Amino acid sequence: MVRLGFIIGFIALLGALLSGLAAYRVHDQELALDRIALARAIDVHASLVQDRLTERELLARVASGLFRAPSVIKPNMLEPLRSAIYAFKTDFVVAGWVARLKPNELLPAEDAIASAGFPNPQIRSYDDKPIDLAKVTQPIDVLMDLEPRSNETKALPGRSYEQDQVRSAMLTRARVEKRSVASDPVQLLRGGGPIGIIVAAPVIPEGATEPAGFVTFSYELASLMLTNDDMSLFSVALKDPRREGGELVANDQGVVSSRMTAADGPAPSATRTVSFGGRDWHLGYYAKTNSARRAEQTAIIVAAIGFAITAMVCGLFGYVAYNNLRLSREIQVRIGFERRLTAVIDELNHRVKNILAVIQSIVTRTLRHGSDIDVARELLIGRIHAMSNVVSLLSESQWQGVKLKGLFEARAIPHADRIAVTGPDIAVSARAAQSLSLLFFELASHSDEGLSLVGKHPHITANWTVTGEGTDEVFHFRWEEFNTSEATRRPDSDFGLILLDRVAPEALGGTAKRYFTDASYVYELTAPMETVVDMSERDRTDKISAPVRPVR
Question: InterPro entries under this entry (predicted)?
């Protein structure tokens, strides 16, 4: 009996020790996992917020760069920009043109506002009080046009921003620094409206040193902060730059309110800083659940189970061993997933930067000084549409490459129905696809639309062949437009010539030539197949898209 009691006591002691050890391990691991998950979710959220802010600031910069101001008091100044700003599909509340008017321009400005169809063309203060124009001696900033026009916004043009402290400070800083600037949080539209932020980009005419006005975009604060996710692990608050200790928070409906943080109140689990409009904004993240309490509850449950099955030493040991192995594998999988996610984000950032660099080059070359704005706009839209199409094709193939014949679809280039395409069914790399897509668009957009077909065959042919073997394989591409000559074919643009003769061949590591025959226009491109296919890029994409597996 004594021996049995000793054995039972030993088993009970061993079971208690093992149960306590298991509870301790589970507590630490659950706490570590929760903290890792929370930190990662916060990092992802802050990155998404920064991307949204960068996109919206880019919209303001692009809009100001595309803006042309022959006269600051011309009515409907935003008319040429409407298609461009809506193409970005950002969630701005109001886009506006704020002109910097001299005293002698105020009366013509009232006439321009009236001719644009706004109900109250009088130049007035921001609180709708009339301004004695005879007493104005310095230039003032006046809202001249806006988009969208609704019953709520039509009454805004004609207001001067001089008496509004927030908007006046924003425009003054944008004028001095000559870059896009964000305002303090402010009620949009009228008093009692949603709280948001306004970003203003100065429009500086060519040869001038001072802005002729500003293109402004206003955004609701809740959408910028991405606060309406009920399933997130945290709630987010924006540090109020207007007062120390103040925070701006949004509820599930997106209504933003202000609050003061108490000295003895809960501190944020983490803080992140994002940049927007030439200033830093501080986000505070508050965890919705108590990780320590949750870990303690899990540990108590494990300990209770251990005490309940103390007599089953083998089962208890097996359970603990299995549980520890499962948790260890989960940690390894999560660590591996985070590393893979970091690699994917780095790769995505690299590809997005490349795409933005190409778009920047397209915009700069297309909208060069002295170009016809209507022709340039059509070419710009077409070139960006060609880039958008190839990115869509790459996304559909998970960036594994694009079938070369897919770049000749009607949605990608003009006159696709008149092009006879022949060649082996090869998949080109992402980099090659972007260069070839722009190349095909330039060739197709400058082909003569008035030429008839020859017999039953289209008068444009595009064919390619692959010669050689192994590392000596060479890609040959030939574009030929029949029944055309140097006199009938529309000349290539400056950007098109650079793309045809230098950019596309250099991107593929090859050579190109173009010439006219007696009956056709010919463009030929030759490049090594290893640069056209680029297996290293495909292998890298395969590696980061492979499923994460636990380490055994």
Answer: CHASE_dom, Sig_transdc_His_kinase_HWE
